[in-house]
Each structure stands twice: as structure tokens, then as C-alpha cells.
Design a protein that fits this description.
The complex is a heterodimer. Chain A is built from 10 helices and 6 strands; from the N terminus they run H-H-H-H-E-H-H-E-E-H-E-H-H-E-E-H. By secondary structure, chain A is mostly helical. Chain A folds into 2 domains: 62 residues; 142 residues, Arc Repressor Mutant, subunit A, CATH 1.10.10. Chain A has a 3-stranded antiparallel sheet with strand order 1-3-2, with helices on both faces. A 3-stranded antiparallel sheet of chain A has the order 4-6-5. Chain B folds into 4 domains: 93 residues, Roll (PH-domain like); 55 residues, no CATH class; 76 residues, Winged helix-like DNA-binding domain superfamily/Winged helix DNA-binding domain (Arc Repressor Mutant, subunit A), CATH 1.10.10.10; 64 residues, Orthogonal Bundle (Arc Repressor Mutant, subunit A). In chain B, 45% of the residues lie in helices and 19% in strands. In chain B, a hairpin with a 5-residue loop joins strand 10 and strand 11. In chain B, helix 4 crosses helix 6, helix 7 packs across helix 9 and helix 8 crosses helix 9. The longest helix of chain B is centred in the middle third of the chain and has 49 residues. The radius of gyration of chain B is 34 Å and the shape is flat. The termini of chain B are far apart. The chains are: A mainly alpha, B alpha+beta. At the A-B interface, helix 1, helix 2, helix 3, helix 4 and helix 9 of A face helix 2, helix 3, helix 5 and helix 6 of B. Chain A: It holds the Pfam family EAP30. Chain A: It is found in: Cytoplasm. Chain A: Keywords: Coiled coil, Cytoplasm, Protein transport, Transport.
Chain lengths: 243, 353
């Protein structure tokens, strides 16, 4: 009999707290509605405000983009903005994958996404893209963000890229290509290690080999070819994106 | 030369000022404008406004050029502002306010023989207005930030409360009903708080995700059948969200719903390959059986890369590769990994032993 009493009390305690949370949730929802009625536009139109908003959420341990069913998404409309951006990012990456092996600079991704959205759409910043990509990782498609020379390379294929690969990508970022000789002198690696890493990038289609260059063969990264930027996505490529 | 600058509009004039060299400033009276037209942006072209002008009067002030064979000028908006500027300029041309209001300040002309440098004093008034507008916008933003801070303080309280409840739940393992656990999870979902007890992905296992799982089973049946019974999760994400248009699913919503497919005995399931690639399959789909037909296809052609196989069979390259990798894992295919790419061959070691 005493045991049953304890059990009862335990349940009641939890019930109380849950009831309290439910009430506070309702209040919070009202506060959020008020905020949205005054400042929803600010979020929509101002990329810096979005950054502030996201940073503050992260500081207190809240993820406004976790679910479309969350208050933030429902009332501020942040969800739809980022989830739709996710779709557009996936489509651009798929369409261009055969050109660059699944690696693309944040700049090029930004340009292509803006083009796809048309001139009347809401403005999208690079920070917005990065946040959308971080959310896409959970889909298991290999989305990753690789810092290179002050910007980022976005990976969109499940190829394994370890520290060695990343370091070489960073080295190649300056000129768009890298040679075995440069790797050996900058990173002090053995020839074998440099070659292994470069071959992996070649196999994945992320690097192309130019044997006709004077001197050392040059390993070029199509993701870094600036001449290819703003080249329209062809209809054939667009078909790849929408299976 | 007049490459990078700021365009300003007053009631009387159109003014352009060089971004780097503020001394370099050119202007044209609005009265000189006959009409304006827009030119849309295109590939490698920025949006423009074409301004058609009356012939220059004989007492025209000296400017950057003495004469031109063209009767128009083009304003190129490399960054933004074309739409709004066109609207405002149209308004000013229609209203013709310069006819009613005398210009407040006179222009002083630098009579140097070099290309037109005009020190236009009217600029100061315009700049003051811009500064005021900036302050006004700043005020709106600071108000927004203030309200945001207050809101975040309240959100923080919710986070603290959820932690305290989670602790209570941990202590009283087994004494909290399943119903209450589900309720708690849905509260966390609304706020976007990670489940402090299990640290598992946000709000998994809530009623919302259960419903979503059932919905997905309905929506995806036909598309799956069209695609040979299997789709990658990114494909599903795009398909479902494009169809919804509004109230989109977050990637986590999708994953959490798919995780419940099997336990809800729905006709689809979530499968994760070794590579980490996640797919949705029809229950009736058997990837291992598909491997047998893949082996046939590869044998017919001698060898195939994932790209070639994908094109032949009409699959996405991603899934084609996974099938070939699975076939390799099962011992039916072996690989030739060269710089030319990854190529799969029938595993003769198996068949010829």
C-alpha cells in the first residue's frame, strides 16, 4: 500500500509540471504572435536580423528550424524560408554534380540559387545558405561544409573527405589547381601521400588532371573554375535535378 | 569610366556620384528627360533604365562630354535598386515638381578643362535626408532587437523548465506514463528544444510524426512504384515539399517520421546504407533481389560504372552506386578503382570457383 502511494505522488508531480509547462507554452505562443505581428517582415527582409535571431536562439538552446511544426516556423515563417531554400540547394547541386563532382563554392551556389529564385523573390544571403545546408545534413546525402581560404566549399555527395583531402582543397583554392610539387613543399608530405589524396579526388570527379601543363601535372578543381560561374544550368542538367 | 557609383534623385535632377572619388559628380536636369524605359536583367547583364533625352540646349553647363551621337543614356544597376528607382523616377517625371519649385541652391561649376567635375551643393541636402532615413530604419531595427531580446528571455525560461521536467522524469523512471512522455515531447517540438533526457533528435516519436508517417505512406506509394520501389531521402524531401508549397517539412521532421514507418507497420520503410545514404523503400521492394538483375546487366556489358549503370537502368546515379556497392558486398561484383573512375565487373572468382 505505501508503494502505491509513492507511485501516485510521483505521477502527480510530473502532471503538475507538465500542466505548468503547457500553460507557459500558451503564454509564450502569445508573445511570439505579438512579436511576429510587429517584426515578421524584418525577418523576411533583413538577412542580418536573421543572423541575430538564429544566434540568439542557439545561445539559449533553441533550434527554430528543427521542425515545421515548431512555433517559430509556424508563426515567424522562418521554417518555410529555410526548408524551401534546402530544396533549391539540393536541385542546384544535383544539376551541377557532373561538372564538379559534388563540390561547389558557396559563391557559385549562391549565384545559381538566386538565379533559380527569380528577381522578385526574397533576398537570400550566404549565411542563409549555410544554415539551410546544416539542416540538410540529416538527410544522409553527404552534405558537408568545408572551409577554404576565407570561404566555403559545399559537398553534396557521400564521398569520404578526410583531413588530408580538405587540406589539399584549401591549398588548391588560391589558384584553382595544385601540383604534387606544391603539396610537397607547402605541406612537407611524401610524394606517395600527395598522390593518394589527389587520386581520390580524381576518382570522385572533384579534380581533373592537366598533363599538358608545362612542368608538374596540374590537378584542377572544377568547383573553383571562375569561368564556369554563372554558366546557366542547361535543360539536360535541370532534368538530372528532378528525377 | 563612370563605372561604380551611387545614383541620386531629386525633384529637379538626376545625380550620379563616383563611389570612390566623391569629388566626381555629374548631373542632368529632369526637364531634359523625354521618357524612360526599363531593360530587364539577363545572363551577364544587369538591369537597366534607359533615359531618353531632349537635345542639349545651347546654354548647357559643361559636362563629361561636349556632345554625343546618342539621344539617350543608360543607367546600369549592378547590385540592386532598379525597380524602386524606376518607380520613383517615373513619379518625378510625371509630377514635374521642378516647374513649381525653384532649385534651392545653385550649382558651382569647376571650369577646369578636364572632364566635368561639378561640385553640386544640393548634394548636402540630399545626404541629410538619406541620413535621416537611415536613422529611422535603425530605430525600427533597434526596436525589433529589443523585442527580440525580451522574447528570447522568455524562451530561455521555457528551456529551463523543460530541463527541470526532464530531470524529474529521469528520477521517476517508469512512474511517468507513456502519454505524458509523448506530451512532453510535443512541447519540446513546439519550442525547438532538444530532448534533454535521451538527447535524441528533436521531438521524435510525437503524435505529429506518427501522423506524418501515415501521410507519407499515402503520398509516396505511387512515386515509389514509378521509380522501381526505392528513393533517396533527399528525393523524398524535395518531392514532398514541392507538393506542399506551404507549411513545409523540415529535414528532421522527415527523418523522424520515416523512423516510425516500420513500427507503424506501414508499407514503406527507411533503410540506411553503409555509406550513410538513406532511402525509402516499398516493403515489397527487395534490394537484394535487384542485385541479381544488376549482375545480369553488368555481365551483359562486361563492366559498368555507376554513371553508365544509372543511365541504362534509368536510376539516379546515387542509388545506382549503392546497388552496385551492395552487389559487391554480396560478392557478385568486384571493382576496378582507377583514376578513370570506379568500374564494376562480375566477380569471376565466385562464379568460376
Amino acid at each position: 500500500l505505501p508503494q502505491a502511494k509513492y507511485k501516485e505522488r510521483g505521477t502527480v508531480l510530473a502532471e503538475d509540471q507538465l500542466a505548468q509547462m503547457s500553460k507557459q507554452l500558451d503564454m509564450f505562443k502569445t508573445n511570439l504572435e505579438e512579436f511576429a505581428s510587429k517584426h515578421k517582415q524584418e525577418i523576411r527582409k533583413n538577412p542580418q536580423f536573421r543572423v541575430q535571431f538564429q544566434d540568439m536562439c542557439a545561445t539559449i538552446g533553441v533550434d527554430p528550424l528543427a521542425s515545421g511544426k515548431g512555433f517559430w516556423s509556424e508563426m515567424l515563417g522562418v521554417g518555410d524560408f529555410y526548408y524551401e531554400l534546402g530544396v533549391q540547394i539540393i536541385e542546384v547541386c544535383l544539376a551541377l554534380k557532373h561538372r564538379n563532382g559534388g563540390l561547389i563554392t558557396l559563391e557559385e551556389l549562391h549565384q545559381q540559387v538566386l538565379k533559380g529564385r527569380g528577381k522578385f523573390a526574397q533576398d537570400v544571403s550566404q549565411d542563409d545558405l549555410l544554415r539551410a545546408i546544416k539542416k540538410l545534413k540529416v538527410l544522409g546525402n553527404g552534405f558537408g561544409i568545408i572551409p577554404v581560404g576565407g570561404t566555403y566549399l559545399i559537398q553534396s555527395v557521400p564521398a569520404e573527405l578526410n583531413m588530408d583531402h580538405t587540406v589539399i582543397l584549401q591549398l588548391a583554392e588560391k589558384k584553382g589547381y595544385v601540383t604534387v610539387g606544391e603539396i610537397k613543399s607547402s605541406l612537407k608530405w611524401e610524394t606517395e601521400r600527395a598522390k593518394q589524396v589527389l587520386e581520390h579526388l580524381l576518382k570522385e570527379g572533384m579534380a581533373w588532371l592537366d598533363t599538358q601543363a608545362a612542368g608538374d601535372p596540374q590537378y584542377w578543381l572544377p568547383a573553383l573554375f571562375t569561368e564556369l560561374y554563372s554558366q546557366e544550368i542547361t535543360p539536360e542538367e535541370a532534368n538530372e535535378a528532378i528525377p | 569610366r563612370f563605372d561604380s557609383g551611387v545614383l541620386l534623385l531629386s525633384t529637379h535632377r538626376l545625380i550620379w556620384r563616383d563611389q570612390k572619388n566623391h569629388e566626381c559628380c555629374i548631373a542632368i536636369p529632369l526637364s531634359q528627360i523625354v521618357f524612360i524605359e526599363e531593360q530587364a536583367a539577363g545572363i551577364g547583364k544587369s538591369a537597366k533604365i534607359v533615359v531618353h533625352l531632349h537635345p542639349a540646349s545651347s546654354n548647357k553647363e559643361p559636362g563629361p562630354f561636349q556632345s554625343s551621337k546618342y539621344s539617350y543614356i543608360k543607367l546600369s544597376f549592378k547590385e540592386h535598386g532598379q525597380i524602386e528607382f524606376y518607380r520613383r523616377l517615373s513619379e518625378e517625371i510625371t509630377q514635374r515638381r521642378w516647374e513649381n519649385l525653384p532649385a534651392a541652391q545653385t550649382m558651382q561649376v569647376n571650369k577646369s578643362p578636364q572632364a566635368g567635375r561639378i561640385r553640386a551643393v544640393g548634394i548636402v541636402g540630399i545626404e541629410r535626408k538619406l541620413e535621416e532615413k537611415r536613422k529611422e530604419t535603425d530605430k525600427n531595427i533597434s526596436e525589433a532587437f529589443e523585442d527580440l531580446s525580451k522574447l528570447m528571455d522568455k524562451a530561455k525560461e521555457m528551456v529551463e523548465l523543460s530541463k527541470s521536467i526532464a530531470n524529474k522524469i529521469k528520477e521517476k523512471q517508469g512512474d511517468i506514463t507513456e502519454d505524458e512522455t509523448v506530451r512532453f515531447k510535443s512541447y519540446l517540438l513546439s519550442m525547438g528544444i532538444a530532448n534533454p533526457v535521451t538527447r535524441e533528435t528533436y521531438g521524435s516519436g510525437t503524435h505529429y510524426h506518427m501522423q506524418l508517417a501515415k501521410q507519407l505512406a499515402g503520398i509516396l506509394q505511387a512515386p515509389l512504384e514509378e521509380r522501381g520501389g526505392i528513393m533517396s531521402l533527399t528525393e523524398v524531401y524535395c518531392l514532398v515539399n514541392r507538393a506542399r508549397g506551404l507549411e513545409l517539412l523540415s529535414p528532421e521532421d522527415l527523418v523522424n517520421a520515416c523512423k516510425m514507418l516500420e513500427s507503424l507497420k506501414l508499407p514503406l520503410r527507411l533503410r540506411v546504407f553503409d555509406s550513410g545514404v538513406m532511402v525509402i523503400e516499398l516493403q515489397s521492394h527487395n534490394e537484394e533481389e535487384m542485385v541479381a538483375s544488376a549482375l545480369e546487366t553488368v555481365s551483359e556489358k562486361g563492366s559498368l560504372t555507376a554513371d553508365e549503370f544509372a543511365k541504362l537502368v534509368g536510376m539516379s546515379v546515387l542509388l545506382a552506386k549503392e546497388r552496385l556497392l551492395l552487389a559487391e558486398k554480396m560478392g557478385h561484383l568486384c571493382r576496378d578503382d582507377s583514376v578513370e573512375g570506379l568500374r564494376f565487373y562480375p566477380n569471376l572468382f565466385m562464379t568460376q570457383s
